[in-house]
Amino acid sequence: MRIYTRGGDRGMTSLIGGARRYKDDLRVEAYGSIDEAGAFLGLAHSLLHPERDADIREVVLDLQHMLWDAGADLAAPPGVSFAFRTPEEAAAALEPVIDRYQAQVPPITQFILRGGTQAAAALHVACTVVRRAERCAVRLMRHEPIHMPALQVLNRMSDLLFVLARVANARAGEADVVYARSPQVFR
Q1: d(C-alpha 119, C-alpha 53), whole Å
Q2: CB neighbours (10 Å) of residue 79?
Q3: What is the pLDDT of residue 175?
Q4: Which residues are in the Cobalamin adenosyltransferase-like domain (predicted)?
Q5: Is 112 helix (H, G, I), strand (E, B) or coil?
């Protein structure tokens, strides 16, 4: 099988179901941002310590699969059915995972700077790209229907990635760096 098709040479791509859209279409932008987030999760996975962060590595792989599901949801225009959709309970299933990892780091009361170890920085980048994908999905939702569990899982996933970045830093002995001019915003 060839990787190239020449089908996109004029600036268009195919959605699930065969409909053609320009590559800057809101739907394409949304699932493209999801694809980008998945790549950053792959980078984070490669940078996480194989033993110390083995559990986080497993979570990251699970999140990559969830991103593929959400991306497929957003690549399917209204009226197109396909074998798998993001499950209704996907976002809720992430909440106990967030809580479990949140308990491993001290509470924050101020904004923190993103960074720390290379693995944590990659998780922070993935978090922000997931947030962009969520914003793209919201813009799309305002123009045409989307499968809402895909949007909800992006919202919850960005929270989890923020927490995982903090945990990765803490396990490596890196303290959170508080934004210098941050008031106390979290209680």
Answers
A1: 10
A2: 8
A3: 92
A4: 3-168
A5: strand
Burial 1-16 (b: 16+ CB within 10 A, else e): eeeeeeeeeeeebebe
Whole-number Å distance between alpha carbons of 27 and 43: 25
DSSP 64-94: HHHHHHHHHHHHS-TT---S----TTHHHHH
Torsion (CA) 58, 47, 176, 174 in degrees, nearest 10: 110
Angle at 104 between CA 102 and CA 107, to 5 degrees: 60
- Report the distance separating Cα 100 and Cα 89, nearest Å: 18
Q: What is the 3-state secondary structure (H, E, C) of 12-64?
A: EEECCCCCEEECCCHHHHHHHHHHHHHHHHHHHHHHCCCCCCHHHHHHHHHHH
* CB-based burial label for 49 (10 Å; 0-12, 13-18, 19+): middle
pLDDT computed for residue 4 by the predictor: 83
- Phi/psi for 22 (5° steps) reads -65, 150
| pLDDT 10s digits, 48-66 | 999 999 999 999 999 999 9
